[in-house]
Design goal:
This protein is α+β, with helices and mostly antiparallel strands and 133 residues long. The chain contains 2 helices and 6 strands; from the N terminus they run αββαββββ. It has a 6-stranded antiparallel beta sheet. A hairpin with a 2-residue loop joins strand 1 and strand 2. The model has no long low-confidence stretch (mean pLDDT 95).
Length: 133
């Protein structure tokens, strides 16, 4: 059975930000996000929280799809995001790659890059895997 969101994606933070899920495979997932004023901080840069939100969304969804048939759910446990260069316009291109698939935690690396492929932010994301309530 395919995982179905409880809330339509257009009514979530992902929808508000404009996150568009792309391709995925065993141990990886991609998404894009167009840069617009609602994701910028007052000085015109993409807000750092946007990168953290992208990472959490991608890795939570990818983990959830991997564990839901076993009656488990995925929840963000740790998000450590570092900012390497500003992104001012264009599109953010995100790719998450799984590093560890454990019984109770999954660990991911996420890279967010600009249209030129320059990495703007990196995130180490840990997702907890728990029994569904």
């Amino acid at each position: 059975m395919e995982l179905q969101p409880r809330i339509p994606l257009d009514r979530t933070l992902d929808g508000h930000l404009g996150l568009v899920y792309g391709d995925s495979g065993d141990g990886w997932i991609e998404a894009t996000l167009p840069v617009a004023d609602h994701v910028r901080q007052p000085m015109g840069l993409v807000h750092g929280g946007v990168y953290a939100a992208i990472a959490e969304s991608l890795t939570s969804w990818a983990t959830a799809t991997g564990v839901h048939e076993d009656g488990m759910v995925a929840q963000g446990l740790s998000n450590s995001t570092n900012f390497l260069r500003p992104c001012l316009e264009g599109t953010i291109h995100a790719r998450a790659e799984r590093l560890h698939r454990g019984r109770t935690t999954w660990v991911w690396d996420v890279r967010c890059a600009d249209d030129e492929g320059r990495v703007c932010a990196i995130t180490r994301m840990v997702i907890a895997v728990r029994p569904a309530a």
